[in-house]
Write a structure and sequence with these properties.
337 residues; mainly alpha; globular; Farnesyl Diphosphate Synthase; cell membrane; 15 helices; protoheme IX farnesyltransferase activity; Protohaem_IX_farnesylTrfase; EC 2.5.1.141; single chain; UbiA_prenylTrfase_CS
Length: 337
């Protein structure tokens, strides 16, 4: 059976290669390698990196350091995604939404993709080491290793808890941003890591509910496949109830952010909880799952934007002024009373 499967896989790749190469020019080759990096995923990782940098620098982030760190983070994330495409090429061919990716379609050979991934990783490490610091570079490399060795190899095909544990890989970019500025990791950095970590299950399980049949077809034990929609929506509900309060810990007790971020986090959190509740009431509704998935992306992007805005010096001055005026007003009222 194994030999037959390998022959089948090799045959499919050869057919795809012979067809695609007849029509490929240089720009199409570049596009194929670009698609290997799964570029739509990377911006969400980078915004957590930027949020960490702004908070670590109290809103006075060095533009050059910001650029270098984001480029280095992009290269590391791209390397991880290319390696993932190589490893998962067998199941990618069988899943409808992934069979047209460059490797299963034969546009890029696994060996060439591996060289591309190694080059991206080395460039990331070099860039971060030279222009940021060694800690940020090592964290970026640990993200690649964790994503491939722990999530993709050990967890993804073997346990429905793959996303819970594997979420650590997606949370590492926040640590990279903080380390690039400070050269160390504080409690605030680890809380930012925890927020992304807790956010990952509701985000990814909502997607898994949408494409449950695809995962079942290739034998990937995602939670909706193994435990069903009801159990999955309960877990989404629980993790949503965890991530929203966790986001507020940046205000108290850590005191890293103020009322502007607090207002944004509360507003976003209420909507997040509402969507999780709606999905809990209708576990099989794929439109609700799609809505939850899309909003989870918006939630993280706007939450990180709130961190950046609140950490700006001008915003801190406004907040301090409002606090002082409020204290003066309260004192006047108490004295007058």
């Amino acid at each position: 059976m194994r030999v037959l499967f390998e022959k089948k896989e090799i045959g499919e790749v050869m057919v795809g290669t012979s067809v695609s190469r007849q029509h490929e020019n240089f720009l199409q080759v570049i596009q194929s390698y670009y698609q290997l990096t799964k570029p739509r995923i990377i911006p969400l990782l980078l915004i957590t990196t930027a949020a960490g940098m702004w908070m670590a620098s109290d809103g006075r982030v060095d533009p050059f350091l910001l650029l270098v760190t984001l480029v280095g983070g992009t290269l590391a994330a791209a390397s991880a995604q290319v390696l993932n495409c190589i490893y998962d090429r067998d199941i990618d061919y069988d899943m409808e939404r992934t069979r047209h990716r460059p490797i299963p379609s034969g546009k890029v050979q696994p060996r060439d993709a591996m060289l591309f991934a190694i080059s991206l990783g080395l460039l990331s490490f070099t860039l971060l080491t030279v222009f940021a610091n060694l800690l940020s570079a090592l964290l970026a490399m640990s993200g690649i290793v964790f994503y491939m060795a722990i999530y993709t190899h050990l967890l993804k095909r073997h346990t429905p808890h793959n996303i819970v544990i594997g979420g650590a890989a997606g949370a590492i970019p926040a640590l990279v941003g903080w380390a690039a500025v400070t050269g160390e990791l504080s409690w605030v950095a680890w809380l930012l890591f925890a927020i992304v970590f807790l956010w990952t299950p509701p985000h990814f399980w909502a997607l898994a509910l949408m494409i449950r049949d695809d995962y079942a077809k290739v034998g990937i034990p995602m939670l909706p496949v193994v435990a069903g929609e009801e159990s999955t929506t309960r877990q989404i509900w629980i993790y949503t109830l965890l991530v929203v309060p966790a986001s507020l810990l940046l205000i108290y007790p850590l005191g890293a952010l103020g009322v502007v971020y607090g207002a944004i986090a509360v507003w976003l959190g209420i909507i997040f909880i509402q969507k999780a509740w709606q999905l809990l009431q209708a576990p099989t509704d794929k439109q609700l799952a799609r809505s939850m998935f899309k909003y989870s992306i918006l939630y993280m992007m706007l939450l990180c934007t709130g961190m950046v805005v609140d950490s700006l010096p001008i915003m801190q001055q406004v907040t301090t002024g409002l606090t002082e005026n409020l204290q003066t007003l309260v004192s006047a009222i108490l004295i007058g009373g």
